[in-house]
Specification:
InterPro entries: Gfo/Idh/MocA-like_OxRdtase_N (IPR000683), Gfo/Idh/MocA_oxidrdct_glycsds (IPR050463), GFO_IDH_MocA-like_dom (IPR055170), NAD(P)-bd_dom_sf (IPR036291). The protein is an alpha/beta fold and about 375 residues long. It is about 30% helix and about 25% strand. It is built from nine helices and 17 strands.
Length: about 375
């Protein structure tokens, strides 16, 4: 085999990081870019030395494209991915796979029938930081994992984004925009979710744009801008998660896993690397005993990788006939959990999760994104 051909549909802002990383992996080659704006696709192809550009149809018809990377807007994800499956292509989709359960279930069924694979962002769980933390947990550094706390709180993307309205619209908000990173991490560590309970709120019904050509204009907030979610897993573990666009205090990337023999902090699930450290229990405190605890860092090798790592894992998993890590089934289960949290917040009731997912595999320890393996 030689490098596997990739075609990208959608060349917006996020395409830059994909192109930068995919062009550095010897096992893949980006062969064509497609976009509704063909001129934008042309400019991006010239910038990154990609040999062809055109429309979505051009990408799907390209004979040397084996995997389509779907970087369109979330509302178009299912339509574009289904078209790629119909063309006989494997698909890697940016998060989320879609915005409704039925559409994603149909996509997965069609891919299975066609004998092609679906992969779904986020692929940060393939980064060396998360993989090393997961191995430490499985090696028993904190005993049996019991519960988790995750936090993402910020003043909101309207502070810096020139067109932030879509991030406060249906299908977004902090839950569906940032939640996939945190809940994918939790499902990977604890397994399938059994039920969720959530509450949500809005700090205000309208918000202002603060930067760019539309600065000073307002937009409507359609979804809760703060969500708090309690998650119960099939394993018996539980988690408490805060996701907010309403906080004056910037505080995010927090993932704490508490076990019978200690607590471990994981890297930001929106990043591919970061600090891993754990603390052991104090033990029995007697008169004059110290309550100070020392964090023990877990050394690991941070290889410089980023978005696109999930595409590479799919390529190698197909060649090696093994499951890929960031699967469509994982993406579907996380979407089901997030939509159920929305429903719980709206109804005030705990919502049982109907989908499930098998244990998420670890990346092979010898995995080197910059090696030519095909």
């Amino acid at each position: 085999m030689s490098a596997v051909g990739v075609g990208i549909i959608g060349v917006g802002v996020i395409s830059d990081t994909y192109l930068q990383n995919l062009s550095s992996f010897p096992d893949v080659e980006v062969r064509i870019l497609g976009d509704l704006d063909v001129e934008r696709a042309r400019a991006k192809a010239e910038q990154y030395g990609v040999g062809a550009f055109g429309t979505m149809a051009d990408v799907l018809a390209h004979p040397d494209v084996d995997i389509v990377v779907n970087l369109t807007i979330p509302a178009a994800h299912i339509e574009v991915s289904r078209a790629a499956v119909a063309a006989g292509k494997h698909v890697w989709s940016e998060k989320p796979l879609g915005l409704d359960r039925a559409g994603v279930a149909q996509l997965l069924a069609e891919a299975d029938a066609a004998g092609v694979r679906i992969g779904s962002a986020p692929d940060t769980l393939l980064g060396p930081g998360f993989q090393a933390a997961r191995r430490a947990i499985e090696d028993g550094r904190i005993g049996r994992p019991l519960f988790a706390q995750t936090v993402f709180q910020t003043q909101g993307p309207d502070l810096w984004h020139p067109n932030p309205g879509f991030l406060f619209a249906q299908g977004a908000g902090p839950l569906l925009d940032m939640g996939p990173y945190y809940f994918t991490a939790l499902v990977t560590l604890f397994g399938a979710v059994d039920r969720v309970a959530a509450v949500g709120s809005k700090s205000r019904e309208e918000r202002l744009i603060h930067t760019g050509p539309n600065a000073g204009s307002s937009f409507t907030v359609e979804v809760p801008s703060t969500m708090q979610v309690i998650t119960a897993f099939e394993s018996g573990a539980q988690a408490q998660s805060l996701l907010s666009f309403d906080s004056a205090l910037e505080r995010h990337g927090i993932v704490e896993i508490h076990g019978t023999e200690g607590t471990i902090i994981l890297p930001d699930p929106n990043q591919f690397a970061g600090r891993i450290a754990y603390v052991e229990p104090l033990g029995v405190l007697r008169d004059g005993g110290s309550r100070e605890q020392t964090w023990i860092d877990i050394e690991h090798q941070d290889v410089a990788v980023g978005r696109g790592l999930g595409v590479l894992d799919m390529v190698r998993a197909i060649a090696e006939d093994r499951p890929h890590v960031a699967s469509g089934e994982l993406g579907f289960h996380v979407l089901d959990v997030l939509l159920s949290a929305e429903e719980s917040a709206a109804s005030g009731q705990t919502v049982a999760i109907e989908s499930t997912v098998a244990a998420v595999p670890l990346l092979p320890e010898e995995f080197d994104p910059f090696a030519a393996t095909l």
